[in-house]
Amino acid sequence: MSEEREIEQLVQRYYESLYESDAEKVRSVFHEKAMIAGYLHGELVQMSLEEFAGFVAAQQPSPQESGAKQHLEIESVEYAGETGCVMLSEEYLGMTFFDTLSLLRVDGEWKVYNKLFHVED
Fold this sequence. Notes:
Blueprint: H1 3-19, H2 23-29, E1 30-40, E2 43-48, H3 49-57, E3 72-80, E4 83-92, E5 95-106, E6 109-120
Parallel strand pairs: 1-6
Antiparallel strand pairs: 1-2, 3-4, 4-5, 5-6
Helix pairs in contact: 1-2, 2-3
């Protein structure tokens, strides 16, 4: 499988973790030391992986259970050696997020190392 395809599958699992409110799936796509940061309604939000996984799990009923609109669009995928970057947009919790995911390949598997996000107002 190509590197780009592996990365696209990682991004798909990332979006599924949000849509399903699945903390374990969140943990499976992120590196254990990952950080999540961005601006939500003009306020800087910063979370560790565990804080983010807890936030995702707390969204009940899940977007899937509530029949929320699904939208994931990968804008770009770049990689060099064991590092990569993905820019994407997604619908989540009634908002449009623009994410930049920094990736590392660890033990042959791509993981999200950092997530930066912007929420469209």
